[in-house]
Design goal:
The protein has two domains: 111 residues, no CATH class; 87 residues, no CATH class. The protein is 78% helix and 0% strand. The chain contains eleven helices and no strands. The radius of gyration is 20 Å and the shape is flat. This is DUF3307 domain-containing protein. Keywords: Membrane, Transmembrane, Transmembrane helix. It holds the Pfam family DUF3307.
C-alpha cells in the first residue's frame, strides 16, 4: 500500500507542482510536437523512481509513465476550448485508474488494507498536497465557465491572494476535521462570511454573491471530504 501512496504522490507533484503554466500552454499549442509533453512524462517517471527508490519496480514505473504519456497525448489531440474542463477531469480520472489498475495487475498480492505504521505520515502529506495547489487548479478549471471580469467591475487586489487564502482555509478545515473540531469549521465559515459580507453588500450583485458562495462551498466541501477519507483510512493503519 505504501507503494500505491507514493505513486499517487508522484502524480500530484508531477501534474500540479512541477508543471508550470508555460508548459501547459505550449503543450496545448503544439500538442504532440511540444517538447514539454515529453519532458513532463520524463518528470513523472523520475519522480516515481525517486519516491519508490527501488529499481525492482522499474516495469511498473515505465508502464505508468507510458500510459501517462498516451493519456496526455489523447487529451491534447481531442480537447477544444469549450471542452477543456471535461478533458481536464477525464484526464485526471484516467491517470488515477491507470495507477491503481497497473499496480493491482502487477502486484495483486499487495492490494490489502494493512498499512505500515509510517503510512500515516505519507497519507497526511498526500492529503495536504492535494488540498494546496491541485485543489486550487481544480477550482480554477471549474470557474473557467464564468468570466469574473463581467461579474464585477475591476478592483485592486493582491496578486494570487485568492489562491493562498483558499489553500490556508482548506488546510485549516482539514486539520479541524481530523481533530474532530467541527465547531472550529463552523467558526471558520462564519468568519469568512463576515469578512465577505461587506464586499457583497457593496457590490449589490447577485451573480457575485453566487460566485463567492459556490467557491466557498466547493473549497470547504473538498477539504471536509478529504478530512473524512483521511480519518477513515486511519482505521486501517
Amino acid at each position: 500500500m505504501m507503494v500505491l501512496i507514493k505513486l499517487l504522490m508522484a502524480h500530484l507533484i508531477g501534474d500540479f507542482f512541477l508543471q508550470p503554466k508555460s508548459w501547459v500552454e505550449e503543450k496545448e499549442a503544439r500538442k504532440l510536437k511540444s517538447t514539454k509533453l515529453y519532458i513532463h512524462t520524463a518528470v513523472h517517471i523520475a519522480l516515481m523512481f525517486l519516491l519508490l527508490f527501488d529499481l525492482s519496480y522499474w516495469r511498473l514505473i515505465l508502464i505508468i509513465g507510458v500510459l501517462h504519456f498516451i493519456i496526455d497525448a489523447f487529451k491534447l489531440t481531442l480537447q477544444k476550448k469549450k471542452t477543456k474542463r471535461f478533458y481536464f477531469f477525464a484526464d485526471q480520472i484516467l491517470h488515477l485508474l491507470t495507477i491503481f489498475g497497473t499496480y493491482s495487475l502487477l502486484y495483486p498480492d499487495n492490494i490489502n488494507l494493512n498499512f505500515e505504521v509510517n503510512a500515516f505520515h505519507l497519507m497526511f502529506l498526500l492529503a495536504v498536497l492535494f488540498l494546496s495547489y491541485p485543489t486550487s487548479i481544480i477550482m480554477k478549471v471549474i470557474f473557467s465557465k464564468w468570466n469574473l471580469s463581467k461579474i464585477v467591475s475591476e478592483k485592486e487586489s493582491l496578486e494570487d491572494a485568492g489562491t493562498y487564502i483558499g489553500i490556508l482555509e482548506r488546510l485549516l478545515v482539514f486539520i479541524f476535521v481530523v481533530l474532530d473540531q467541527w465547531e472550529a469549521v463552523g467558526f471558520l465559515i462564519t468568519a469568512k462570511s463576515v469578512f465577505r459580507f461587506g464586499d457583497l453588500s457593496a457590490a449589490k450583485e447577485r451573480k457575485l454573491t453566487e460566485y463567492v458562495l459556490i467557491g466557498t462551498l466547493i473549497s470547504f466541501g473538498i477539504a471536509i471530504i478529504i478530512g473524512l477519507i483521511f480519518k477513515l483510512m486511519l482505521n486501517y493503519v
